[in-house]
């Protein structure tokens, strides 16, 4: 176990805090002990936690008891929180902390996982011009042994590539757009339509949808990020790919989508993976600029999974 004694150099009134870091996997992730996050967090500890996030990429705090405001305050240790939509089934009083729940307030199953797209590898907010820095996820009720959150170390993935692959990927950019990414995955783009899509009713639905999505894409402008993206703070190159990255820039769309799919299918070595099995009261903070994540399967009709999420701006 690595221990850091966090000492305030200029403030003799503030007590020292011993933060203990226990590795979560071979190459990244650390459990941090020695902190009750519902209490005030001093500036010196805030700075130590920000450094720890850069060093370890995923931080785990166990046995925390946090309400919405306390969680948002913890998230703000890492930066300002992005205002989030209110989940219609499980409303939040704080627009910086929202719920991802497969049951409503009365405990009735909603019949699905609340965000099906999150079952694919992604980086939160990569579809934005200024993608998110970090995500802070709190487990309120979690299915035993299921609904794991999987992480991939994107520094490691880049480092594991051979030199020709590194050279090739360094020249490429990806367009990130979650609507078009999901449409491509679900084969809803015009050149992916099957015979069943060619009925008048289906065609009308497809064309209406396509017009609105394409209208938004051209009105708001496309968002491109380099596929090998130097981390904005550490400068280390990381692969910046995942589900929102739907096509490679500068190619005819169908071939750009095909190439992006190949890049997104890169195999992850076991040493670049960490799978988090949740316990109630776990709080995870991860760096969206150096890890991808996705939620694992669970029986959303029989088991209850209630999480609360804050997203930290870049
Ligand atoms: Fe996510």
Automatic annotation (TrEMBL):
Family annotation (InterPro entries): TauD-like_sf, TauD/TfdA-like, TfdA_dioxygenase
Domain TauD/TfdA-like: from-to ranges: 23-310
Keyword Oxidoreductase: yes
Keywords from the UniProt entry: Dioxygenase, Iron, Metal-binding, Oxidoreductase
Pfam families, A to Z: TauD
Iron recorded as keyword: yes
Origin superkingdom: Bacteria
An example molecular function term from Gene Ontology annotations: dioxygenase activity
Similarity annotation: Belongs to the TfdA dioxygenase family.
Name of this chain's protein: TauD/TfdA family dioxygenase
The organism of origin for this protein: Sneathiella sedimenti
């Amino acid at each position: 176990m690595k221990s850091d004694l966090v000492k305030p150099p200029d403030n003799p009134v503030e007590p020292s805090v011993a933060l203990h870091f226990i590795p979560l996997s071979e190459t990244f992730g650390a459990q941090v002990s020695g902190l009750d996050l519902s209490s005030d967090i001093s500036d010196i500890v805030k700075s130590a936690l920000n450094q720890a996030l850069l060093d370890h990429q995923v931080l785990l705090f166990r046995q925390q008891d946090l309400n919405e405001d306390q969680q948002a305050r913890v998230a703000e240790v890492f930066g300002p929180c992005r205002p989030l939509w209110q989940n219609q089934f499980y409303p939040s009083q704080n627009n910086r902390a929202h719920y991802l729940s497969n049951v409503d307030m009365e405990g009735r199953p909603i019949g699905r996982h609340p965000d099906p797209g999150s079952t694919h590898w992604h980086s939160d907010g990569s579809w934005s011009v200024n993608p998110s820095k970090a995500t802070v996820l709190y487990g309120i009720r979690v299915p035993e042994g299921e609904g794991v959150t999987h992480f991939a170390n994107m520094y490691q993935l880049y480092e594991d590539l051979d030199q020709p692959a590194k050279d090739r990927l360094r020249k490429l950019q990806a367009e990130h757009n979650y609507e078009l990414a999901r449409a491509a995955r679900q084969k809803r783009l015009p050149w992916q339509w099957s015979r069943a899509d060619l009925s008048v009713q289906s065609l009308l639905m497809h064309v209406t949808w396509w017009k609105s999505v394409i209208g938004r894409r051209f009105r708001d402008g496309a968002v491109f990020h380099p596929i090998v993206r130097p981390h904005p703070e550490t400068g280390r190159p990381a692969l910046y790919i995942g589900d929102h990255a739907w096509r490679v820039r500068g190619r005819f769309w169908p071939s750009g989508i095909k190439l992006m799919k190949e890049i997104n299918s890169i195999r992850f070595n076991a040493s670049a993976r960490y799978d988090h099995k949740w316990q109630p009261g776990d709080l995870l903070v991860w760096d969206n600029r150096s890890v991808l994540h996705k939620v694992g399967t669970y029986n959303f009709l029989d088991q209850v999974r209630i999480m609360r999420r804050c997203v930290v701006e870049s």
